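Lab notebook, bench 4. The sequencing result for the construct came back, and we need a structural model before the next group meeting so we can plan mutations. Quick request posted to the team channel:

Model the 3D structure of this chain.
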Amino acid sequence: MTEAYLNSKFIGTVDDPNSFVAKVRDERRAGSIVSNLNIYHNKKSDEIFIETSKGRARRPLIVVKEGQPLLTEKHLKQLEKNEIVWSDLVKQGVIEYLDAAEEENTLVAFFEKDITPEHTHLEITPLGMFGLTTSLVPYGNFNQSTRVNAGSKNQKQALGLYASNYSVRMDMDVNLLHYPQAPIVNSIMHGISDYENHPAGQNIVVAVMSYKGYNMEDAIILNKASIERGFGRSTYYRPSISEELRYSGGLIDQVSVPDKDVKGYKSERDYRFLEQDGIIYPEAQVAEGDVVIGKTSPPRFLSSLEEYNLAAGTRRESSVAMKHGEKGVVDFVLLTENEEGNRLVQVRLRDERIPEIGDKFTSRHGQKGVVGLIVPESDMPFSVSGIVPDLIFSPHGIPSRMTISHLLEILGGKVGALSGRQVNGTTFDAEPEEKLREELKSAGFRENGVETFYNGITGEIMEAKIFVGSMYYLKLKHLVANKIHSRARGPIQLLTRQPTEGRAKEGGLRLGEMEKDTFVAHGASLLLKERFDSDKTIVPICENCGLIAIKDDYKNKSYCPVCGENVEINDVEISYAFKLILDEFKSLGIYQKLQLENKY
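Done. Here's the predicted structure in token form:
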């Protein structure tokens, strides 16, 4: 007796499980029971699981019966003439949706030619196992699975033309590539998804070689002339937003140039770009600290007593200024209203980003790397035919990662560039390597993609042949200009008196436990004395009871809150965070005694 479960609940037993499962599947294909039902027979535990619950990933497959797929030429002709649609094929039981469990009972063929009598289903296309971005990776079947995944993730971070109406949009944190191109080596998904309308990369010449060690560990070398001709240039857009809020008592914020008597007035220089209405003008070049939208707010706390107080009448400064480390040009100013009918001012800033050392680039195969050096064209290696690569890729990124598709794309790109056509690199259904090699040979090049190169600095011929070709490269949104961060002195937190956290708040760089270990291992442990006094404080401590004493600056004397005045009180250097935890212990009723000893 085989137990049967519906959505994990026991519903009964079955005498002949195989015929039962086959009958349920036939009924589902005939449309007499709901189509979102999946049935799975676990032969090892002799149980049948029927699932109709929500949240399952299900995928379509063509049904195969007696070694023949149910999708025939007749169906394809009808589809071409629009006589039937996809849903008709599902209703006819030609295509069915399987979930992860039912797929355990199937044997799926990749292509029609692979079908044997044992096969139960046929892939509509092997590409169907991928998501949208993953199927844009060319020659994906020549890659290790994790790299295909990484290639998919990298493409989501690439800069391109995200929307054609970007000029009238106020989007947060947006990048736009200036000269995006459609790839030479593409897949059928590029056509299906209209990739040409929103491309996110550029076709460049890539040479696989090392260059003075500047492309170690995944770094890449860029040709300075390529950047000057527009490679990888992008613009970074970011809006500044301010609204006139309404407060109780009829008070309201005011967008205007703040008067000098306003509480928190910055300096005249900070407001120099504002026009009479308190808003900056377009095309103004602004940098850190400059005010973009001038605004004043009513005083924070108003009580009936303070209505007659002159100081209470002064408004406070609440302008929107450029944050730490930001710069740009005012691109677009928008005046509108929000849902409540309050005035809303939005100012969009733009900043041109030219590739620099530290910017991140990647191919579509998860081969990401940062720019290690930008070389003048005169110092770049060049081929016999005078081709200078735009980018030099390190050969050490290939063996351990096994991204053979990276090399195949360079070969395919070279063929496509020479023949003036697009090369089909669809995963599982691409132009074969042999064909590409033949075409390259007929174009007068070596079939294996290598060429003789000259050293750009000495002019000597290189002993090794260099693998070179054309490739689609992407610039990623991780720009060094948004990440670079350093600080000497700066703002501190109110509670712990330690430096603030994060780049936006001009924060400090934390030296943690492990970083401490590296200093000790280097024999530079005295550096820790310098690093660990960001919140150094001097605290008076009573020698008698070991509690923190009180220093009265007015009377110029110290006394202990417990023992009084006639005790010895000494000043001790401690971290303010330590003083804070002592106070926390006090609040718990724990008596913490500090026992002082002489330094010597």
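The CA atoms of residues 513 and 519 lie 10 Å apart.
Will bring this to the meeting.
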